[in-house]
Design goal:
The chain is α/β, with parallel strands linked by helices. 71% of the residues lie in helices and 7% in strands. The chain has a 5-stranded mixed β-sheet, sandwiched between helices. It holds the Pfam family DUF373.
Length: 374
């Protein structure tokens, strides 16, 4: 049996007419085609379904065993749509009452729908593929799909769009320092905006911003303290930078080590507070989620240890501390980190062993009861 398979990858049929898919059989498919043509006469999937009916009628007149069906994906496209098409093909094949081997003739409206052909081949042999496109729009659709693929492919867009964006930025940069007349100003601004857009698309900045915004929304709705901790930490970082700059102005920056020591000495307490804040926020969220492990508690102690060591070293370089204070700070910082690591490692080992023994005891009790039951 030959299965004439009309593919609607973006589910225009279901979204615009309310038809449940897959649609199997000559009369149901004709009803679906008429409903879609009535809802949207300009939809190219109308031509696909009518082409499937035309092929079905032509083969039926030759007394060949044939069936026609319409399968759809979803408007999300990509992998999700391909999977949905595969599931509907399985439903169609299960509904066919024939002892003959089934092969498929796939009918699509363009290159985008043909991306699902490997999914179809994994379920039924494909005898052929027929593309139905309005002749005047065939080249335009192919060009649009190719350009869309370039924009969606991370590797391709990075190698193509970024150089184009840089080239478009050269023209407005060449206008700097010269008299900007109105035509040149407009062309330069347009070129700069287009270049920035291509560079942002090439780097995928839009997707990253969308992902970051989604994470922020999830954190707000889930009541995660990490978001608040990051905001506070950002403010502390700014204060640390201002404090470090003020300290730099108070000393004589004769050498690079002295400048670095001044910046660290003035900002380390603020940076340490930011590190402790973020680590405590993360620990709180892990505890609420039930995923907290003992070794996570090392983070604030490590931050304090590192801050103590950096404060002592920077103070020594600035002449604000002697060797005794430096040695004491290095020793205390090292011992604090080692002590916290050992303490939480021992606690994690003991508590995990205790929990495992309790779990084993709970599983052994039912088994013992089963053995002593008369």
């Amino acid at each position: 049996m030959l299965l004439v398979l009309c593919v609607d990858l973006d589910d225009d049929l279901g979204r615009k007419t309310g038809f449940s898919t897959p649609v199997v059989g000559r009369e149901p498919v004709e009803e679906a085609a008429i409903a879609l043509a009535t809802a949207d006469p300009e939809d190219s999937d109308v031509n696909v379904i009518f082409q499937g009916l035309h092929v079905y009628d032509d083969l039926s007149e030759r007394d060949e065993s044939v069936e026609v069906a319409v399968v759809t994906g979803n408007e999300e496209g990509d992998v999700a749509a391909n999977r949905e098409v595969g599931e509907e093909i399985d439903t169609v094949l299960a509904s066919l009452s024939t002892a003959d081997d089934v092969t498929a003739l796939v009918i699509t409206d363009g290159a985008q729908d043909e991306s699902v052909i490997p999914v179809i081949r994994s379920r039924v042999p494909v005898d052929g593929v027929r593309r139905v496109v309005v002749r005047q729009a065939q080249n335009l659709e192919s060009m649009y799909y190719t350009f869309k693929q370039v924009l969606d492919d991370p590797e391709t867009r990075g190698t193509v769009l970024i150089p184009l964006g840089i080239l478009l930025l050269i023209y407005p940069l060449a206008l700097i320092g010269s008299a900007l007349e109105m035509p040149g100003f407009v062309l330069g601004t347009t070129s700069a905006l287009l270049g920035l857009y291509l560079i942002s698309r090439g780097l995928g900045l839009g997707e990253r911003l969308d992902t970051a915004a989604a994470q922020v929304r999830r954190s707000l709705y889930a009541g995660r303290t990490t978001l608040l901790a990051y905001v506070v930490a950002a403010a502390l970082f700014v204060l640390g930078g201002v404090s470090g700059t003020n300290t730099l102005e108070e000393v004589d920056p004769s050498t690079a080590p002295v400048m670095l020591a001044a910046l660290v000495y003035g900002s380390i307490q603020w940076l340490a507070a930011a590190g402790v804040t973020t680590s405590l926020g993360q620990i709180t969220d892990e505890y609420i989620a039930g995923d907290l492990e003992w070794r996570y508690l090392n983070a604030p102690f490590y931050v304090v240890s590192i801050a103590l060591v950096l404060h002592a070293v920077s103070a020594f370089f600035l002449g604000r501390a002697d060797v005794g204070y430096l040695a004491t700070a290095l020793t205390v910082g090292t011992l604090l980190g080692i002590t916290s690591t050992l303490a939480f490692a021992i606690a994690e080992s003991r508590f995990s062993d205790h929990e495992e023994s309790e779990a084993d005891a709970e599983t052994e009790e039912p088994r013992t009861a089963e053995r002593v039951r008369p």
